[in-house]
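INTERNAL AUDIT FORM
Audit reference: QA-55
Scope: verify that the stored structure record matches its stored sequence.
Auditor: D.O.
Record contents follow.
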Amino acid sequence: MLVPLRPGELQRLIPAVATSNQFAAALGNPRKILQRVMIAAIGGVITLLISQSQLASRWGAVWLVVGVALLLYVLWGPIVEAGQRNAGLRRYPAAAIFEGEVANVFTRERVLDSHEQANKLGELELVENRRTWIVLELEDEDGYLGQLSFPMSKKHQFIRAGSLIRCLVLSDRKDFSRIAALTDAWLPGQRLWVGEYPFLLRPAFEELCQLRFARQTS
């Protein structure tokens, strides 16, 4: 079942400015955070040194602002990244609430990164950092819709085929003949949110679902 959103509702459910949950998701894993810190530290120190040098006496104030901005990259970098991800879905002309069920649940291994290191014999071997992802196949009375995949944790072990699930469906066609994207999803029976990235303002989405589906059943 697809329930089209009214004008302005997509923008209310997916904000232009990053929320705290989106900031945390965009901040990334420790390795990504370390990369941001290194970029901020190196870039910030270099530009601040340039701002204090005689070569940049005319543009010293500009270099100083750039240096401070780079030092704060750890903070504004995730905000910009989250805003770009949000904007990617807010641009679609057609959006609808999907209510269906989990048709199938399975897991797959994903390689996060790999590197070579020497073993006890001094031989180089490839070491892969893997993580288990859970995949949900979604369908309704019209058939298969698509897949949601995200890193698996203990709370996901209770998801079963047949579970009721709701999310937003985005399309560049008003008739939704081609699905472009799915957001994170809500499983009311388990009171559980799932997804790789928290696009939705979740309390607002739950409230909207209660309003729309209560009207349809009344």
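Auditor finding: record pair retrieved intact. The first strand starts at residue 2 and ends at 4.
Action required: none
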